Amino acid sequence: MVLSRMQTGKKPTGVADVLTTKQAAQRLGLSVTTVQKMVIQGEIEAWITPGGHRRIPGGAVEKLLASKLPAHAIAVQPRVPSQRLRVLLAEDDPIQAQFFKSIVGRCTFPIDLTVATDASMALIQLERQRPDLLVTDLLMSPFDGFHLMAALEKEAAYHGIEVLILSVLDFTEARSLGSLPEWVTYYQKPVIPDRMLGYLDAMHSRLIKKHTRHKDW
Questions:
Q1: Residue 77 pLDDT more than 50?
Q2: In CATH, what number does 78-216 get?
Q3: d(CA 200, CA 36)
Q4: Are 120 and 143 in contact (CB under 8 A)?
Q5: Can you tell me the mean pLDDT for 163-181?
Q6: What is the pLDDT of residues 38-68, one digit of tens each?
């Protein structure tokens, strides 16, 4: 049994484990608001009872946990000042992801890199890790970078995260396809490695200054 979108009516046949939105959020380690948005966007199967309550199959939550969360990301990581640059890459093309990893490998300072293969996985990692930098493609499947940008704009908790968009689209094309926040940095692919290294180096320098100020407090 597959629910392709949120439906209204009785519990679908074959669904044994049923969760409320709050229970699903607790299992995923996310906020209720985040889970609600994922349901609305079709990222988690759900239905509405005749009484107007949202219900989520437990199997859908377990499937999401198994397919989208790497083992090292299960525990919530507190966002504390650190000299390690924490980077989240949202990229569904394994070749492009490997290219970015090769650039990170040339950096002379420590970087913790997590790779998400679509916007929904990236959203989960944002909730859990609060990285210093989000690097994202726009044209991803099934959920693209425009979904991710919309979520970042709406959630005040994400506004301290720097965003770098890497896309084959030029900036004008991208803006014609969806809304992009004014504060993002935009590089068109193919990206020159030295330019990317310079960006990461500048980002790390700002992080060191922030860390030093925190120690002085």
A1: no
A2: 3.40.50.2300
A3: 34
A4: yes
A5: 94
A6: 777 677 888 787 777 788 888 877 777 666 5
Instruction: State if pTM tops 0.90.
Output: no
Whether residue 41 contacts residue 147, with contact meaning beta carbons closer than 8 Å, is answered with yes
Question: CA separation (Å) from 122 to 80, 116, 143, 217?
Answer: 20, 5, 10, 33
- The answer to whether residues 147 and 38 touch, using CB atoms and an 8 Å cutoff, is no
29: which residues sit within 8 A by CB, 6+ positions away? 74, 76, 127, 128
pLDDT band at 143 (very low <50, low <70, confident <90, very high): confident
| Cα 127 to Cα 47, 62, 151, 217, distances in angstroms | 24, 18, 11, 27
DSSP label of 89: E
Give the Cβ contact number of residue 34 at 10 Å: 18
As a CATH number, domain 7-66 is: 1.10.1660.10
- Locate 24 and state its tokens: 């699903």
